[in-house]
Design goal:
3 helices; 9 strands; 6-stranded antiparallel beta sheet; alpha+beta
Length: about 170
């Protein structure tokens, strides 16, 4: 969604305060697409900051579905976007949120950039997630598997074999 900045950049430099609904249904990150299942309207405040610069404040809550890093089950992630940016509209960068010669703000890109910055390094469905069995792939949160649990790192099997001989 592109938001026209002509009111802010015009002669009167009017401040804009709006609530905008993010229409995107997916958030793309690291080559994957994650469903965006809920969000609050994004509260935007845009004002002129002098010398062809604008100040953009944005705040909104988002719920995204991603796979748990341990068991691969779908897990909701709750994130709050809080942006406070000073942007030079006269010299927009290639990947910037200003489009069409500085007169439009790309709200979707703003949200995407902020979600990208706040993306968790580890996604877990619950703190005590057991994950998957390394042998058969059974989700250990659901039940035990019939695999033999040696409890030993396979790289250490040579040492285990030495102890068996003694």
């Amino acid at each position: 969604m592109l938001m026209n900045l002509s009111k802010v950049l015009g002669e009167n430099h009017n401040q804009v305060k709006e609530e905008v609904t993010v229409e995107s249904q997916f958030f793309a990150f690291d080559g994957d697409q994650y469903p965006l299942i809920a969000n609050t309207p994004l509260a935007l405040e845009i004002e002129y900051a002098g010398e062809s610069k604008i100040k953009v404040k944005a705040k909104g809550d988002f719920e995204i579905i991603a796979a748990c890093d341990r068991c691969l089950e779908d897990t909701p992630i709750f994130m709050t976007v809080e942006a406070d940016k000073l942007i030079d509209v006269a010299a927009p960068e290639e990947d910037e949120i200003i489009k069409k010669d500085g007169y439009c703000l790309d709200v979707e890109r703003l949200v995407k950039n902020e979600l990208f910055i706040g993306w968790p390094t580890k996604i877990v469905c619950k703190e005590d997630c057991q994950g998957l069995c390394g042998t058969c792939g059974q989700n250990l949160n659901v039940g035990e598997c019939d695999c033999e649990d040696t409890g030993l790192d396979p790289r250490m099997s040579v040492i285990r074999d030495l102890f068996k001989e003694v």
